[in-house]
Amino acid sequence: MYTEDMELYHVLNRGVDKRNIYLDDNDRLRFIHDLYEFNSTCPAEYPYRTIRSGDFVSPHLREKIVDIHGWALMDNHYHLLLSELIEGGLTLFLRKLNIGYAKFFNERYGRSGTLFQGRTKKILITQEAHFLYILHYLHLNALDCLAGAEGWRERSKSGITDLKKALCYLNTYRWSSYLDYAGKKNFPSILRTDLFQEKSGDYIKELQNYLRDAESLAPQFILE
């Protein structure tokens, strides 16, 4: 349950000059692995192996530094919904994640220099209304890749012409927390779902209702 003593952040970072930060599915799997591996008080062990499995379970016990409530990967940026578990956990986690993934990416592709465009953007979710919709916003980013649904942010202007097609596309898109919230095991070990599930009940039905709602998206929690 969302409470006043909990700080929930919408986090975004993108590639420098808006360049792609994931060039194939192995890159995406590596980043998801890093969401798990770097979420620990322990120094990160960073094996440069190809990640192929669908979920990641560390062989050692660990103390998490943040809870990950939602995530979405696009070609040139990522979105996260995070809350701290220890003081300074948010900053520590994002530093480990960005540096660690950039090191992997640069080594894999023989490049050097900055991968991300600068300081990670963070916005504190302070209103209940924003809390109710921010998870939908993250998951619907995938529709930017679907012809006929690119205007989903402008729902009042019929941004999605085929709701059924849009939902089918989301059910095939692995690179967000949508499938886990929809009851289809994808990458459950990195995710804490109870915060939103207590509010939503039937997540897919709520998402459909959200898309049919004529109100525009609240600009306060849109970082792009």
TrEMBL record:
GO BP terms in the entry: DNA transposition
Gene Ontology molecular function terms on file: DNA binding; transposase activity
Classification via InterPro entries: Transposase_17, Transposase_17_sf
Domain Transposase IS200-like, chain residue ranges per copy: 4-141
Protein name: Transposase IS200-like domain-containing protein
